[in-house]
Amino acid sequence: MLTSLVYKSFKSNLFRKLVWKFTYEVLPRLNGSSDWQFMNYGYHPTTEELQDPSLVQEGFQWRSRAMYHCLARKVKMEGRSVLEVGFGRGGGLSHVTRAFSPASSQGIDFSKSAVNLARSIHREHQVDYQWGDATNMNFADNTFDIVLNVESSHAYSDLDAFFFEVHRVLKKEGQMLLADLRTRENWGLFYQALERAHLIVHEEEDITDQVVSAIEKDEADKMALINKKIPKLLRTLFKEFAGMMHSELHMSLKQGRRAYKRFVILPSKA
Fold first, then answer.
1. 174 and 138 Cβ atoms separated by less than 8 Å
2. In 86-169, at which residue ranges do the beta strands (DSSP E only) sit?
3. Is residue 7's pLDDT more than 60?
4. Angle between helices 219-229 and 208-217 (to 10 degrees)
5. Residue 231: predicted pLDDT
6. Which residues contact 255 (CB under 8 A, 6 or more apart)?
7. Is the CA virtual torsion 21, 26, 31, 33 positive or negative?
8. Residue 123's pLDDT is what?
9. Residue 170 pairs with which residues in a beta bridge?
10. Strand bridging mode 104-109 / 258-267
11. What gap in Å lies between CA 201 and CA 9, rounded to an integer?
């Protein structure tokens, strides 16, 4: 009953704003633990990807780290400038910086709580975490080699503005690495917005099965931390938005009503 009510209400723009405000501003204050460094649902690598010796397959949230690792392997990172838009708790950009040695790593997030949390958790790493708006970035044109965006764009109120900003801040030979989920019908709107911003899909993969597998394999560890860190009154709602097993999100992915995809996207040269 609660699941159905939450997701029916989620169609309301006002409710969506309140939910994202709660998720990205309030939750970092409730759970400031350095244990929980990622906000994505996780990715269980393919057999081939599991052969990568640089992919550490241990520790809490290693599959959420794998989401970034396997995406970052798609392009050359070493010696290049990287911007992550919507870094959440900062763990993804921190990992990419340590594992792939970019020349510079910057991240922006609309949540001031997230900025403060990421700075406190990852203070020893060479990453610049700043407040910023995905639809109005405070960077000059042609600044970055790579723009990274993981499980964030589905929450933006103006996807067109985001993609136009990505095109603007990317260098001519730059690349965007994006991983996200949407309902089947909303993927069509995604592609249309890319086209309007003169961005081209260079590589696309449906990774829904790998995400569902990660959700199911990580259930016990996540449940233990939720019971430890989240107030009892908020646990049911948090489990829904954390995509726990049998949540609406988990079932919509498993039943094919939502798809999770990852991309390498290039600016058009036209």
1. no
2. 104-109, 128-131, 144-150
3. no
4. 60
5. 84
6. none
7. positive
8. 81
9. 144
10. unpaired
11. 33
Instruction: Please tell me the chain's helix, strand, coil percentages from 3-state DSSP, rounded to the nearest 5.
Output: 45, 20, 35
The pTM of the full predicted model, rounded to 2 decimals, is: 0.88
| d(C-alpha 19, C-alpha 158), whole Å | 17
What confidence tens digit (pLDDT) does each residue in 207-264 have?
A: 999 999 999 999 998 888 888 878 888 888 778 877 899 999 999 999 999 999 999 9
Residue 2's pLDDT is what?
A: 42
The pLDDT mean for the chain works out to 88
Structure tokens given for 173: 């030979």
* Nearest one of 66, 60, 69, 63 to 33, comparing CA atoms: 60
List the structure tokens of 162. Answer: 């985001």
**Tens digits of residue pLDDT in 8-65:** 444 444 444 455 555 555 555 555 556 678 989 999 999 999 999 999 999 889 999 9
d(CA 139, CA 130): 12
Taking alpha carbons only, the member of 75, 51, 99 closest to residue 203 is 75
Task: Name the one residue in this structure whose structure tokens are 């350095």.
Answer: 34
